[in-house]
Design goal:
Blueprint (H helix, E strand, L loop, with lengths): L8 H10 L4 H15 L9 E4 L3 H15 L9 E5 L27 H8 L3 E6 L3 H4 L9 E2 L3 E2 L16 H8 L5 E6 L5 H6 L3 E4 L19 E6 L2 H11 L33 E5 L9 H16 L3 E6 L11 H15 L11 H10 L1 H4 L5 H7 L8 H26 L3 E5 L4 H7 L3 E8 L5 E7 L5 H15 L10
């Protein structure tokens, strides 16, 4: 088989083990493709920074393969990471903000360290919606003052690229790396994955350490994989898991995480599965073509052996969700991250960020900074009654009276959503979701479906998602010629 930018981790590993290609050649392939399509040609603008050491890392890993053998499935594989994930190297970590444009992290994030340990080539960083879309209201998905506007390769300038992991989604759809890491607080992996026809995994909060990721919410934040296939996403997920003593939330994953999720992938994985179909989330949000694609997906699930329980509802889907949790946690989280920067860096607090933006208003405040200012008006101590009450309410409504209730009522393995609808309730619960490409409209707009389950149900979700993917194989690469 001839390899290309669309080839999978498994295919590249087979070629490297056979000696027919190298990590250096693979890395060069992606660098050339980025040169061709990121800032010229179709100009999707998905990449914020290239790692100047990427080729050196690839060459070192090639030599290590000869001398010691492969470390595992990610050995020599180029990976892109979102530009809010810290790397203790010569790349910046900025969250898309001009205030952090010259900042270097003091150390690797847990995610970056795990990728290096797995033998991945950190190829570069991807653009994002600024501050992971927690800067202001009505900011365009994929826009940041540092990086500019990310475009969707399926319809540059016409189709929403999704956010806030916009660059990670656009980059993998465009074939700029094998896989990428995004981050999510509420929809930021799942939404761009659907928009860019990708497999996205928003893991259970606690499966992957948050250390070294510029935060929004200690309650909801997580990193997660974005890939062109379920298997590639599963491989990347396994590399990122593990208990981190510096992040208490990962203690919940002890005995529940897996270093390799590939054993759960089963082409017959839908046989006997009970899937609850959600319809109430999307009646007014999709056109007839997209509704037809959803019906087709449901029929495919049935044909693959799943028991479809139609038109289930989450009892609390219309609960009175409020902004207090993210608003209060953002200030304390950002201030904690900024204090880890080298002492010489002048931006030390959220107040400093706001002041910097005001001083550079023309470049930094195209859409304003309403959320930054509202968050900064909180105490930063998480003592406010509004925050504490909302946090307790969110957990009760999203977990016990929400997702848990509907799964128990109908004895379901998961809930099915159209697109990434429903991401908000799963985000508040801290529960996992997986998106899978599910076709295109006549005009070429990607459509996807999303499987959502209980905490640490990634094995079951991946099993079902893989079986659906293998039964349908609906993903089509974008046409990149401008």
């Amino acid at each position: 088989m001839e390899l290309s930018h669309e080839s999978t981790i498994r295919q590249w590993q087979q070629a490297m083990e056979a000696g027919t290609t190298t990590s250096r050649e693979l890395t060069l392939l992606f660098l050339k493709r980025i040169a061709q399509y990121d800032k010229q040609g179709i100009a999707v603008n998905a990449i914020s920074e290239i790692n100047p050491d990427a080729l050196h890392i690839a060459e070192a890993l090639d030599r290590e393969r000869v001398e010691k053998g492969s470390r595992g499935p990610l050995h020599g594989i180029p990976v892109l990471i979102k530009d809010n994930i810290a790397t203790g190297d010569s790349m910046h970590t900025t969250a898309g903000s001009l205030a952090l444009a010259d900042s270097y992290a003091s150390a690797d994030s847990f995610v970056a360290a795990r990728l290096r340990e797995a033998g991945a080539v950190l190829l570069g960083k991807t653009n994002l919606t600024e501050w992971a879309n927690y800067m202001t209201e009505n900011m365009t998905n994929g826009y940041s003052s540092r990086g500019g506007q990310v475009l969707n390769p399926y319809g540059p300038g016409q189709l929403d690229v999704g956010g806030s992991s916009s660059g990670s989604g656009s980059a993998i759809a465009s074939g700029f790396a094998v896989v990428a890491v995004g981050t999510e607080t509420s929809g930021s992996i799942l939404h761009p994955s659907v928009k860019n026809s990708l497999v996205g995994i928003k893991p259970t909060v606690g499966l992957i350490s948050r250390r070294g990721i510029i935060p929004i919410s200690t309650s909801q934040d997580t990193a997660g994989p974005m890939a062109r296939t379920v298997e590639d996403a599963a491989i990347l997920l396994g590399a990122l898991t593990g208990v981190d003593e510096q992040d208490p939330v990962t203690g919940k994953s002890l005995g529940l995480s897996h270093a390799d999720y590939r054993p759960f992938l089963d082409v017959n994985g839908l046989q006997g599965a009970r899937i609850g179909v959600i319809r109430s989330f999307f009646l007014d949000r999709y056109d007839d073509e997209e509704k037809k694609l959803y019906e087709d997906a449901i029929n495919h699930l049935r044909q693959a052996g799943a028991t479809v329980v139609d038109a289930v509802t989450i009892p609390t889907e219309h609960a009175k969700w409020g902004p207090s949790v993210l608003l209060h946690e953002f200030k304390s989280g950002v201030n904690a991250y900024l204090k880890t920067l080298p002492a010489s860096y002048p931006i030390r607090t959220l107040s400093d960020v706001i002041a910097f933006n005001r001083e550079h208003e023309e470049r930094a405040l195209r859409f304003g900074q309403v959320l930054l200012e509202r968050a900064n008006a909180t105490s930063g101590t998480l003592t406010e009654a509004a925050y504490l009450n909302q946090r307790a309410y969110d957990l009760e409504m999203s977990q016990d009276k929400g997702i848990n209730a509907v799964l128990a009522e109908h004895n379901l393995d998961c809930i099915l959503f159209p697109g990434s609808e429903g991401y908000g309730i799963a985000a508040r619960a801290g529960y996992p979701s997986v998106t899978v490409p599910s076709g295109y409209t006549y005009a070429g707009k990607p459509f996807g479906i999303m499987f959502t389950g209980l905490a640490f149900s990634e094995p079951a979700l991946l099993r079902m998602a893989y079986a659906y993917e293998q039964a349908t194989r609906l993903r089509i690469p974008p046409q990149m010629e401008s």
